[in-house]
Amino acid sequence: MTPTCPSDNTADVDQSSFWSSGNLNWDEHRIGWAIAGGCAVLTVLISLFSVLQHCRNYTKPNEQRQILRILYMPPVYAIISFFSYRYFRSYTYYSLIEAAYEAVTLSAFLLLLIEFVAATAAGSDATKAMERKGKRALPIPFCCWNYRPTKPYFMYTVKWSVLQYVIFRPAVSIAGIICQVYNVLCESGPYSIYFANVYLEAIDFASISVALYGLLLFYGLTKEELVGRRPMAKFLSIKLIVMFTFYQSFVFSALEGRVIKATKYWTAANISDGLNALTICIEMVFFSILMMWAYTVNEYRVSGGKKTSIWRPLWDSVNYWDFVTEIGGSLKFFFKRARGPLSTHSSKKIDFGQAFGVAGRSVADGDKSLTEESIRLAPYPYSDPHNADSASPVLP
Predict the structure, then answer these.
(1) In what helix (H) or strand (E) does residue 241 lie, and over which residues does it extend?
(2) Could you say which of 35, 150, 268, 313 has the lowest number of CB atoms within 10 Å?
(3) For residues 168 and 207, what is the distance between their CA atoms, to the nearest angstrom?
(4) How far is Cα 344 from Cα 337, in angstroms, rounded to an integer?
(5) With contact defined as beta carbons under 8 Å apart, do 309 and 395 qualify?
(6) pLDDT grade, residue 348 (50/70/90)?
(7) Can you tell me the distance from the alpha carbon of 35 to that of 30, in angstroms, rounded to the nearest whole number?
(8) pTM > 0.85: yes or no
(9) Closest by CA position to 173, among listed 109, 121, 97, 78
(10) Are 73 and 99 in contact (CB under 8 A)?
């Protein structure tokens, strides 16, 4: 007989409503409901203001499309946490959906860092943004191995190390939802090899560990180029959300049955999940403010420039074709590399510039001056490559 998980919910269901006989029914659960809803609305308003500021000053599309994706993180977490608090009997489904957006923000952050580094090479030989980086040791715990940043495999590997999380994290969430439907997930316990949660958490842990290692590797390599762009503040505004949600969930779970006791309508797991969701809603207000500061619009404002339309930026931010392109490009590179030396399969050798995203032109050996003027670094063009640097359409 296939083992199934014990239910996280009570058999009895609270039939009372928020309004009772024309008056508010203010018990602890409904007070939390009101606080969670109010904080979620406030988070949305703060994030909406920040998003609209970038949309109206959309002067560097390749950078700002990634910033918009990151700015969506607090409202996404706040809204989903509110619904997971309100419909606590389905908490697991909401938490799995919420976690999937973390992959989008981490990947967008890497693409943003690459755009920042690319900007330092504008007007000169693009490959020099990394050519001055010599052979060096990998960060702990792989410091016994060295790597060469100017090799094509480096950028492909770094991009894949982070972008793979966009594949695995949503896949883990989808698998978790299916397992929850069949009552074999057991996210609240027991922690057993007979249930799916053990294996899904192991896959998620391995995937996010690789993604974070790739991010830290790239940041450590390019921190000189990132001076003045607040890279650590930008990263912490993302990672602190993940850390807070993870550790507070662990603390609330540890208090189940000890400090947190079951009631007639709520199990200890329900109350623990609800406290976690309520805390997230409150925290997202502060994280939305932190992100508004870390991803300031001031550096994108053009004095005397016309305001841009909001529709192109919003479409760019939800169009994930650049993710698909980068994942596909990395897989293609690794596939060709696995077949043998790249030069044996193509007359056109892949170099570091292609891996990093250099769009340039060939120059004659004797015409070296063109390399200083003609080569630009554009890792993530729009679907129309001719408009990679064009701003959003301006309003009359």
Answers:
(1) helix 231-254
(2) 35
(3) 7
(4) 10
(5) yes
(6) very low
(7) 9
(8) no
(9) 97
(10) no
